[in-house]
Each structure stands twice: as structure tokens, then as C-alpha cells.
Design goal:
The structure is a single chain. By secondary structure, the protein is an alpha/beta fold. Among the domains are: 490-638, 3-Layer(aba) Sandwich (Glutaredoxin); 723-1025, TIM Barrel. The protein is built from 27 helices and 44 strands. Helix 26 (976-994) links the parallel strand 43 (963-967) and strand 44 (998-1003). Helix 1 (72-83) runs parallel beside helix 8 (377-396), helix 8 (377-396) runs antiparallel to helix 9 and helix 26 runs parallel beside helix 27 (1009-1028). It is globular, with a radius of gyration of 30 Å. Pfam families: CBM_1, Cellulase, FAD_binding_3, Phe_hydrox_dim. Residues 690-717 are annotated as: Disordered.
């Protein structure tokens, strides 16, 4: 029953002191607008039989992103989201106004400063901090090689203008990020803590996450509805705990001292980033920081702990006295010791950095902690923040598909794992002990630490300039000539360009500010050579540009010659802003021939997304197709929703096919052409068929093509078999060439996207795709999964987001003439894998290798195999089953029982492969390993058998039909090219000895890729065409 109260004013808003003015128009439902601590909100309320003067004290708030934790990482994420127009809510448990500035991180490396510069934040920090461009390392009072000297001449590791380290205490960095955030009109809400959150799976709005926030000042609980929940709330993260994401790792017995003080010393160059090797206190950190302070750090050994009666006996006086001893023979006088701490060393990493399906993400210390041995903590957290924010923004604005967000964990976790692995080595060496990787070495720890810090790859990674991301949908590699030497996933080097008119120099990274847009940069070279290609290429752009949101891309042209204007130099209207590369430095650094040009697409965070050829065919040919395929895929494919509203399909877009419900009319000048039953595409030019094709509504089996169309690939018939060292199909030779596409069934792709993915792969001449037939979960992830665990009980998901989804993968592969190699579990934590079985059945933290020996675990895995394999045992599209991806004694956690050997995994492989054969006699079976040999005493790690794999022994298992090998050089840094060639040759020899096929299933290196791959592939070709099957050479 509604009634008409007469209300003019009441109090009791949030907080209690905030007045609320209410106007009622005589209806039981009205709009209430008021202002309180979290901003202005409107609510629709229904008045029932309640006291008319009652006001809603604690309304439910709505925000696009609820950010928990306002340290530097949390504040930086919030700042970026505010900058991108995404309305963040920033919550902090502590009262930051009472925080002192002492301690925590104090060094930012060059790549981190570059990222902040592109966000207009670097200058703010530079005004406060201390810059160091060099550093000295001492031993027994003499200057020697080693230590932190990688902090000198930083430009030698990458083309950067930030050839220095920036030092200021973390609280000051945090304050600048918070101030920049507040300048967008938002507030930091202190003394508020998250209590819980839940996903409303039937929410009718775009705010499915319900978060309970406790107001610690007024002792009230506030309800927040949000689209995304970001946990940047430190190593003890409440968000991580609520999300039930394990925090794997351990602490060591080692302890270090860190202090901030004003000091006097006779050490040479004391305002440089210095280090000292001490016989008694490990490697000493000497770091100048803001306000005339110096950060001093040293190892507090077990001997010293015993001397002072444990941690409790370490007073300020003790810390200062031991610091004086640590830097001897130099002298040290303390004028003002403002802060010190003693802390334990350990490394921990979250098993996942996100729960994408539930909209939850972790960043910074919430998902990784480690020592300060190489100053990676805050730098790594800032990289997390920058990687995540633009992806969230594109999704929030409806530009990107939700699957883009999965790339955050994919990209950042692998980088952080390397940070963790490096830190284990560095912190152990600094503490005066030999880490496992250097056990058996006879050199002194000081010499080994010097060797470690001298490694150029380690230096580049530490400074951030060498960090790269793997190939994926936003780091797309191009087959064929790219006309540039830079690889997708690598950092885009910085270089000076020249502005039109004034001739002022401007840095490329300044041009490519991070505004959550992809930057398409056309390196036009010398227009006298490239004008035709530039004209054709840019002439085909308008329909593409018009088909996508304006905030998705920005465009630039760089020429190697200067003149009076862009149009004047190019001889035509340019695309985007024009800059001159007068000394050709930019073209040289990016490896672009000025007579041919190239197109480089930069991600918003400055990493390279793809590099394609600038050619006279415009968007024809493979490079052009890749350009538009990338653009259509950018941010894991730009949303078609914005295109559909125009009722036209953009260039190269889908316009028909089974299951397709979108528009069928192409943009002007483009024609809808049937590619197969599942896919019709807008192609340039005219065709004899109709310009539109209606979407098919029923599945058909005909593969006959209509006029001016491409015939669909034949359906899969017959099962792939082996004959000696060959694969065969229906008695004839079958060539296995293809790609890994593990994600195709697990990223929530539509049937259309699956078909497009397989069509693109098939267009390269591929015959086989390797993919995952597993995804173990313990909750609903929001993306397809195949088995869900409740305690120790697994349930196979046969629904639409389970095996029915994999049915679509098989159908899409079949429609495009592709065979599938399907792995049934994973050695690693991605998509669940072996550790989920062990954790759920045996217990969290139990040894990884129990997967191979525990009877209950083996039984559960066999039950899953029975369900999965039986479903497809008569489907010829499946070429083979792999028992696991890269099985080893150790998994992601690195835990083992200590009893796992090569015999353990060989026995398991024999048992499981025989079990599969008992269910399915049609398909081939392989182990899915990396091809490690078991030759104890070998100098090369992959030959030593230490990971539990004996390649030759496993080849002899009668129920394994073929073998696999991966080539990744595994730390063979001396000469990875020749090492890899020998690795391939050795596997070819094993193939011949066992008379079974071997597939080189994965390969990759991070440096010198072109020359390395040329050698490796030549080795493969030599074995296949020269030594074994010369009749196959064409």
C-alpha cells in the first residue's frame, strides 16, 4: 500500500551527518537524489507502510569498478580507470593521512618510468625523487665488477630516454598517484574494508558483483554493486582470500635489514646506486633516495640473530652498529636514522591473477611477493596495473569482448613467475648461500652473483626493457614478410621524431600516450618509393575505420623525409597525424626498409601488437588479411555490437553462415562471399553471387560451393594412423603441420569465432591443431569448463558450457578440414590440470607427483578420460589423444615427494595409454611431453632426466603411437641456435631408432628469433627431405 507523505527534509544519510532533501510527487514510487561520501546517486524507492520521515541510511551504491586497496598499485589502477572514463570506486582500510613515508619500495627502473610517462605521471615523480645514472660496486674497499652495476649505462639494453633509475619512497609515489586520481573528481575512501562479495548470477543490470564494505569509522556496512572487483590490497589480500585463490610459495630462514637514514660516509660517490660485497653481511644495498636520505640494506645472518637473542633483540642501535660493520672499511656516521626493519625473505605467487568469470582481478602484492634483491616489487606491480587497466576500460566501454580480460593473467603471471624464479636465486646468493641451480659450483658466491648480474638478458628483464609477452590474440604474429624486425609482444623502443613546422623533436612514446587506444603507426619510409603502396593501403582504410568505435584506434604516419607538411611530403592526404623521421633512426630501430615501409600496431600500453607489410595490394594477401584480422581481433576482437547497429558488416567481417544472426550487408565496395557452410565473409571487389547471403539456420552436409565462392573443406573421413615413422590417412601419407590453439574452446568464443579461427589456420596450409580437452574448476568461471570439483568429488560438465561446447570445437575443425590433437590434462596450473586433482583429493599443498601414483587420483583421472574419450571415439576429426601437456615430476608449485623419477612417469604413461586404448581403438595416443632425455651426467639440463621424463624409454611403450618434443632452449644461453639444432637432430635419431613418428610440437626463443628459427627449421628440413624422405621434397 502506497501513500503520499509530505516530506521536506530529513537526515540520516550516508554518512549520518549528510543531509538529504526529498521531494515527493504524490506517488508511492519516486526518485531520491542526494549527495554523500561516495558521490551523487539516484535511487528509485517504493514507500510502504513505514514512517514517512524515514530516510534510507545505507543505500546500495553502483560503480563500474570497485578497487580495494589504495597503495601505489591500487591508486594507479584507479587513476587510469578515471582517466579512461570508467568511474572507479577506491576503497582503503587504513587512514592514509596517518601513514608515515618510511620504508617499502624506493626504486623505479626505466621501463616502469616509460609506462608512467605515457600516463602523464613520470614528471610528478621526477620532481620529488632522486635520479641515478651510475653505480659503483666495492669489495674490501676496492671498486670491482658486479653488484648493482647493471644500473649503469641502462640505454645499452634498449632504446630508451629514461637511462636512469628513479628513487623515492613508496608513500610519496603513492601520494602522487592518489592526487592524480582525485584530480578527476573522485575521492579516496579511507577507513573502509571489504567484508565479503558474491556474484548475482541473475542480475538484470551490468553490476553483477555484490560487495559488502564496512565503514570502520561509523561501524556500518555499505552494499556496493559493481561490474569488476579489483584486489590491490597487499600480501595479506582479503580479496584474494575471498576469491579462494591459493597463494603458493614459502618463506626462507634468511632475514635482511633495511633502513632509511641521513648519513655521512667516506664511500666514493655516495649519492649513486652502490653496492658492497661484505664477508659478514652479504651484499650491501646503498641507495640514495628523496629528502637527502639513504636506503641501506644488509643480510642479518643466523649468527647475528643468535648473537642478539633473536629478532626481538634487534634494536635501532643494533641495526646502526651492524650497518657500520657491514660497509667496512668505509666509515659511516648516522645523523638521523628515521626507520628500520628486519624481515624474512620468501617468494609467493597467486595461482591465478584473476577469476575472470566472476569479474575479480588481483594486482601487485596481492598476487606476488618477493625480496627487494633487485627492486622488482613496485616495478612489477606497476606493470600489473598498466596491463590490466586498459583492458578493463575497453571492456567497460563495450569495445572489447570479455575474453580480452583473460589475457591479463596469461601475460602477467608468466612474467611474474620469472621474477619469482630470479628472486629465489638472487636472494639466496645475496644471503651468502648457493641456490639449487648453482649447487656443485666451486666459485665463490660473490663470483656467481657477479656472473648473474652480468647476464644481459637478466639485466634487460630486471630493468623492464626486456619484458615481452607471448603470442596471443593481441600479440599477433604474421607469416611471411612483415617488413620490420620487431616482434609482436615486444616493447616498442623509443626514438625522437620531428614535429611539422616547428621542427621540435618529440619522442615516439610521447606521441603514443596511453589513452586506452590502439595506435596504428604507418612507417611510410621514403614516399618516392612507397607512395603507391601508401595510397592503396590508406585508400582501403575508410570502411574499416568507420566500422569500429572511434575510441578503439588512433592513426599516425611517419616518413623518412621532411618537408613543409604531411600532404606535401606524401603527395596525398595522410592518415592520422604525420611526423618526420629525418635521420631515419625510427625506421632503423624498428627494422623498416624506407623503400618498402611497414605498419606497426601498438597496444595502449606500448607493447607491439602486430607488424604487417605495407604493400600495393592494400588489404589483399596474407599480410593485409592479418592486419584486418588483427584489427577485428584487437582486444580479442572488437565488439560487433557497435557495427551491427549500422546494419552493415565491416571489411573482412562475417556476413553469413550456420548459427550467424548478425547483419548480412557489407560496407560499400565489399561483397559477402561464402567461405564454407559456417562462414561467409565480406571481401573487396565484386562477385557474380549476391552481395548478401542470408544466414543459414539449419546445418547441412553439402560442401558444394556456389558461384564465386570458395569450396568448404571436405569433412573428416578416416582415422589418422601411423606406418613406421610416417602418419597415414586412408593408406596414404598424411603430413602433420599446424598450430597450437589451446584457447579455442575455453575463451567463450561463439561458433562463428571458432570457425573463423580454424578457417584462418587452415588458410595457412595447416592440417592439425593441438588444443586442450580439459578445464578443471572449483567454481563457475564464466567461461567453458569440462569438470567441476566439489571437495573431492568431480562432475564432468556435459552442458552447453562443457562438452557441448567442445562438440562445437570439433565441428568447426571438421568444417575446415582440420584434425585435432587433444591433451587431457596439464602439468601446469593453467586451466586446472594435475594439481587440482591432487589438491581436491589428497589435500592442498601436497606433492605434485602424487598425480602419477595416488590410486584415488588415478581413478578420478581415468573416470574423466572414460567420459571424454568415449564421447569422441568414433569421430575421425580427432587425430590423437595426449595424456597431458608437458608432464613432469614438478608442476607450477614446484613441490614433489622426492621419490618421483623417470620410472614413475613411464609407468604412469604405460598404464594410462593402455586404458585409453581399451576404450578407443580408433585414435592415436601420445604422452604430450617436452622430449627430455634421461642421460645423467649430461651438461645440458634437458638431457639429465631430472624432470622425470625419459624420451627414449617412453618411445618404447607399445600403447604410445608417436612422441612429441618441444624446443625452447631452456637456459642454454651460450648458443641456443646450435643447441636447438642438436636437440632436433637427437630427437630425429630417436625417431629412427624407435621407428615411430615424432612431432616438434612447440618451439620458441625470445632473442634472435629469425636466425634461430631459420637454423632450426633447416635442421628439420634436412632430416625430412635429405636424410630420410627425399621424395617428399617439392
Amino acid at each position: 500500500m502506497g501513500f503520499t507523505p509530505k516530506i521536506t527534509h530529513c537526515s540520516g544519510g550516508y554518512p549520518a551527518s549528510a543531509p538529504i532533501t526529498i521531494k515527493v510527487l504524490g506517488f508511492s514510487t519516486y526518485i531520491l537524489t542526494y549527495t554523500y561520501a561516495f558521490g551523487t546517486h539516484s535511487l528509485s524507492l517504493t514507500l510502504l507502510k513505514t514512517h514517512p520521515e524515514e530516510c534510507p541510511k545505507y543505500p546500495t551504491l553502483q560503480t563500474l569498478s570497485c578497487n580495494i586497496g589504495a597503495g601505489p598499485v591500487g591508486a594507479l589502477i584507479a587513476y587510469q580507470l578515471a582517466r579512461y572514463g570508467c568511474r572507479p570506486l577506491l576503497i582503503e582500510q587504513e587512514d592514509k593521512t596517518l601513514s608515515n613515508p618510511y620504508g617499502r619500495a624506493c626504486t623505479l627502473w626505466p621501463r616502469t618510468i616509460e609506462l608512467l610517462d605515457q600516463l602523464d605521471l613520470a614528471e610528478r615523480l621526477l620532481q620529488t625523487g632522486v635520479v641515478t645514472r651510475t653505480g659503483l660496486h666495492f669489495y674490501e674497499g676496492r671498486r670491482v665488477k658486479g653488484g648493482l652495476m647493471y644500473g649503469s649505462r641502462m640505454d645499452k639494453l634498449g632504446d630508451t630516454f629514461f637511462k636512469f633509475a628513479l628513487h623515492l619512497r613508496q608513500k610519496l609515489t603513492e601520494d602522487e598517484f592518489t592526487a592524480a586520481f582525485q584530480e578527476y573528481g573522485f575521492n579516496l575512501h579511507m577507513r573502509h574494508a571489504i567484508e565479503s562479495y558474491a556474484l548475482d548470477e541473475v542480475a538484470i543490470d551490468e553490476y553483477p558483483i555484490r560487495v559488502q564494505i564496512k565503514d570502520l569509522t561509523h561501524d556500518h556496512v555499505v552494499q556496493v554493486k559493481t561490474r569488476y572487483l579489483i584486489g590491490a590490497d597487499g600480501g595479506k589480500s582479503t580479496v584474494r582470500k575471498l576469491a579462494k585463490i591459493p597463494f603458493d610459495g614459502e618463506y626462507t630462514k634468511n632475514r635482511w635489514i633495511r633502513m632509511d637514514a641521513k648519513v655521512k660516509t667516506n664511500m666514493p660517490n655516495p649519492r649513486c646506486l652502490n653496492s658492497i660485497d661484505s664477508r659478514s653481511h652479504g651484499q650491501i644495498l646503498w641507495c640514495p633516495t628523496d629528502n637527502g636520505l639513504t636506503r641501506i640494506g644488509y643480510v642479518f645472518s643466523q649468527t647475528l640473530l643468535e648473537k642478539y637473542g633473536g629478532v626481538e633483540g634487534v634494536t635501532r642501535e643494533v641495526a646502526m652498529e651492524e650497518a657500520k660493520k657491514a660497509i667496512e672499511p668505509f666509515e659511516l656516521e648516522f645523523e638521523d636514522m628515521q626507520w628500520f626493519t628486519i624481515y624474512g625473505i620468501g617468494q609467493r605467487i597467486a595461482r591465478s591473477f584473476s577469476d575472470v568469470g566472476n569479474g575479480v582481478f588481483l594486482a601487485g602484492d596481492a598476487c606476488h611477493t618477493h625480496s627487494s634483491g633487485s627492486a622488482q616489487g613496485l616495478n612489477t606491480g606497476i606493470h600489473d596495473a598498466v596491463n590490466l587497466a586498459w583492458k578493463l576500460a575497453l571492456r567497460i566501454h563495450g569495445i572489447a569482448k570479455g575474453s580480452l580480460l583473460a589475457s591479463y593473467d596469461e601475460e602477467r603471471r608468466s612474467v611474474v613467475q620469472q621474477v619469482i624464479d630470479n628472486d629465489k636465486t638472487i636472494s639466496t646468493l645475496i644471503s651468502g648461500e648457493y641456490p639449487p641451480r648453482f649447487q656443485g659450483r666451486t666459485e665463490s658466491i660473490r663470483d656467481i652473483l657477479t656472473e648473474w648480474f652480468d647476464d644481459m638478458n637478466m639485466q634487460a628483464f630486471t630493468l623492464g626493457l626486456g619484458i615481452s609477452y607471448p603470442s596471443n590474440a593481441i600479440n599477433r604474429e604474421v607469416n611471411g614478410p612483415s617488413r620490420a624486425t620487431l616482434n609482436p609482444g615486444e616493447r616498442g623502443p623509443d626514438v625522437y621524431l620531428t614535429s611539422i613546422g616547428t621542427g621540435d623533436p618529440i619522442r615516439l612514446q610521447k606521441v603514443l600516450k596511453n589513452d586506452a587506444k590502439f595506435s596504428v603507426v604507418i612507417f611510410a619510409g621514403n614516399p618516392s618509393h612507397t607512395c603507391s603502396a601508401y595510397s592503396v593501403f590508406t585508400g582501403a582504410l575508410p570502411p574499416f575505420i568507420q566500422s569500429f568505435p572511434a575510441r578503439a584506434f588512433k592513426w599516425f604516419t611517419i616518413t623518412s623525409v621532411s618537408g613543409n607538411g604531411g600532404q606535401e611530403v606524401l603527395g596525398m592526404t595522410p592518415i592520422g597525424k604525420v611526423y618526420f623521421d629525418e635521420n631515419v633512426k625510427a625506421h632503423e630501430i624498428y627494422g623498416v626498409d624506407i623503400q618498402k615501409g611497414a605498419v606497426v600496431v601498438f597496444r595502449p600500453d606500448g607493447w607491439v601488437g602486430t607488424v604487417v607489410e605495407l604493400n600495393e595490394r592494400g588489404f589483399e594477401g596474407e599480410a593485409g588479411t592479418t592486419m584486418l584480422t588483427f584489427a577485428g581481433f584487437v582486444a580479442l576482437a572488437l565488439s560487433i555490437a557497435s557495427v551491427s547497429a549500422q546494419q552493415t558488416v565491416p571489411a573482412w567481417g562475417q556476413c553469413g553462415g550456420i548459427g550467424y544472426n548478425g547483419p548480412t550487408t557489407c560496407v560499400s565496395g565489399w561483397t559477402c562471399v561464402k567461405q564454407n557452410d559456417y562462414y561467409s565473409q565480406c571481401l573487396q571487389g565484386t562477385a557474380t553471387s549476391s552481395t548478401t547471403l542470408p544466414p543459414s539456420t539449419t546445418a547441412g552436409t553439402s560442401t558444394t560451393a556456389g558461384p564465386s565462392t570458395t569450396a568448404a573443406p571436405p569433412a573428416s573421413t578416416g582415422f589418422v594412423k601411423t606406418s613406421g615413422q610416417r602418419f597415414t590417412l586412408n593408406g596414404s601419407k598424411f603430413t602433420v603441420v599446424g598450430s597450437n590453439s589451446y584457447w579455442v574452446g575455453l575463451s567463450g568464443l561463439s561458433t562463428t569465432d571458432m570457425n573463423k579461427a580454424f578457417a584462418d589456420i587452415a588458410a595457412t596450409g595447416a592440417t592439425v591443431v593441438r588444443t586442450w580437452g580439459f578445464n578443471e574448476v572449483t567454481n563457475s568461471p564464466g567461461v567453458p569448463y569440462y569438470q567441476r570439483w566439489s571437495g573431492s568429488t568431480p562432475t564432468v560438465n556435459t552442458g552447453a558450457d562443457g562438452l557441448q561446447n567442445f562438440d562445437k570445437v570439433v565441428a568447426a575443425a571438421k568444417a575446415n578440414g582440420i584434425r585435432l590433437i587433444v591433451a587431457l590434462t596439464n602439468n601446469w596450473a593453467d586451466y586446472g590440470g594435475m594439481d587440482v586433482y591432487v589438491n581436491q583429493i589428497v589435500g592442498n599443498g601436497q606433492p605434485h607427483d602424487l598425480f602419477y601414483t595416488n590410486a584415488k587420483v588415478i581413478s578420478a583421472f581415468k573416470n574423466y578420460i572414460n567420459t571424454f574419450v568415449s564421447r569422441y571415439k568414433n569421430e575421425p576429426t580427432i587425430m590423437a589423444w595426449e595424456l597431458a601437456n608437458e608432464p613432469r615430476c614438478k608442476g607450477s608449485t614446484g613441490t614433489t615427494s622426492g621419490t618421483c623419477t623417470t620410472a614413475t612417469i613411464t609407468k604412469w604413461a604405460t598404464d594410462i595409454s593402455a586404458y585409453i586404448k581399451s576404450i578407443d581403438s580408433n585414435h592415436l595416443v601420445a604422452l604430450g611431453d617436452e622430449g627430455f632425455f634421461n642421460k645423467p651426467g649430461s651438461a645440458s639440463y634437458p638431457y639429465q632426466g631430472s624432470e622425470g621424463i625419459d624420451f627414449d624409454a617412453n618411445l618404447k611403450i607399445s600403447t604410445l603411437d608417436f612422441a612429441t618434443a618441444h624446443a625452447k632452449s631452456w637456459g642454454e644461453s651460450a648458443n641456443p641456435t646450435n643447441w636447438g639444432a642438436q636437440w632436433i637432430t637427437d630427437h630425429a635419431a630417436s625417431q629412427k631408432a624407435a621407428n615411430k613418428p615424432v612431432i616438434l610440437e612447440e618451439f620458441g626463443v625470445t632473442n634472435s628469433q629469425s636466425s634461430t628459427y631459420t637454423t632450426w627449421l633447416s635442421t628439420v628440413a634436412s632430416w625430412v627431405y635429405v636424410e630420410h624422405w627425399p621424395e617428399d621434397q617439392r
